[in-house]
Amino acid sequence: MGLQQFEDRLERLVEGTLAKPFRSNLQPVEIGRRLTREMDLHRRVGVRGLIAPNSFSVTLAKADVDRFSNFLDALVRELAEAAREHARNEQYTFVGPIDVQILEGPRLRAGRFSVAAEVIEGPDGLAPAELVLPGGGRIHIEAAPIIIGRMPECAVALSDPNVSRRHAEVLRVNEAFMVRDLGSTNGTKVNGAPVREQYLQSGDNITVGSTTIVFEML
After folding, report:
1. This prediction's pTM
2. Closest CA to 30 of 98, 135, 115, 148
3. Residue pLDDT, tens place only, 186-208
């Protein structure tokens, strides 16, 4: 399911233009399959269940890097999302943020590639979590609180006129996560309900002004 969604999203993103030159060469979904296979091969048992690799180095032939040159950023995002979806389907956990790098292998022939997968802990050694922004961008939550507001220096800076200058913060409390309203004019909601502060569960929707941000445990 996840890999099919990965392929469909990437094809929609480039409006089918990527499919033609790759029809008889390396297909993006092949990389996704290899990446998820490496997750399965290198998973290990941890305190909270099965831990999967979260750091991936994808090495492609120069010719394939050149073919992907206009879509490398999109490919990296979609490979990372394929890893998240596979982890959800298999009930894997991560111990650090997902990182995907595309490298060039000068000795590789076109169509050949390799994927190296590692388990790399985040800087705090605790369960990783992210805020998923409306445009699809992601903010990793570390030790310092994530401030949401209209001020440019906020970690999540929004142009929404219904958002206060310093509207809310998302912070780590031991091994849990909390959202706290910072005295905003229009308030903060979690899954549609107004809150002053509330512990978060993966998948919760945080609404500030007219903007909704998703909290996601990795």
Report:
1. 0.67
2. 115
3. 999 999 999 999 999 888 999 99
